[in-house]
Amino acid sequence: MAAVGRPGGAPDAASIGSIGVLGAGRMGLPIAVNLAAAGYEVTAFDVNSARDAALDAAAIRRSPGIRALCRDSDLLITVLPGAPELGQAMAPDALLSYDAGAPLRAAVERSRP
Q1: What is the C-alpha to C-alpha distance for residues 105 and 55, in angstroms, rounded to an integer?
Q2: From CA 42, how far away is CA 69, in angstroms rounded?
Q3: Helix, strand or coil for residue 77?
Q4: According to the model, what pLDDT value does residue 63 have?
């Protein structure tokens, strides 16, 4: 995806569309908050429902699950603890089984090896 819209090549909110953040822990929550503060449409999901309160407090829209997050996002950012969690998110009954009628434009992954 070519960077457009802002000085320095950073894409603006209109060119990105909706951003999904998978993982709302130590890194994911601040990423979601900063993106929302910059004007991006952000939705997040975390398997740990204890993080729901932090998402609500930050006024970040919560997704009901991984499939819905993928379906409703133009850009998906995964911020998971490591490879095992990413593997679980990529399992056939999770991430990869969403409706292919609305494919993601891009996905960015950030976890420890």
Answers
A1: 24
A2: 10
A3: strand
A4: 94
Q: 0.90 exceeded by the pTM?
A: no
- Do 22 and 77 form a contact (C-beta atoms < 8 A)? yes
Q: Two tokens at 47?
A: 């398997």
The DSSP output letter for 4 is -
CB 40 within 8 A of CB 13: yes
pLDDT band at 5 (very low <50, low <70, confident <90, very high): very low
How far from 113 is each of 47, 59, 86, 90, CA to CA, in Å? 20, 31, 10, 15
H-run or E-run covering 84: helix 83-89
- What does the pLDDT look like over 52-82, one tens digit per residue? 999 999 999 999 988 888 888 888 888 888 7
Q: Where would I find the beta strands (DSSP E) of the chain?
A: 18-22, 41-45, 61-62, 75-82, 106-112
- DSSP-derived letter for residue 12 is P
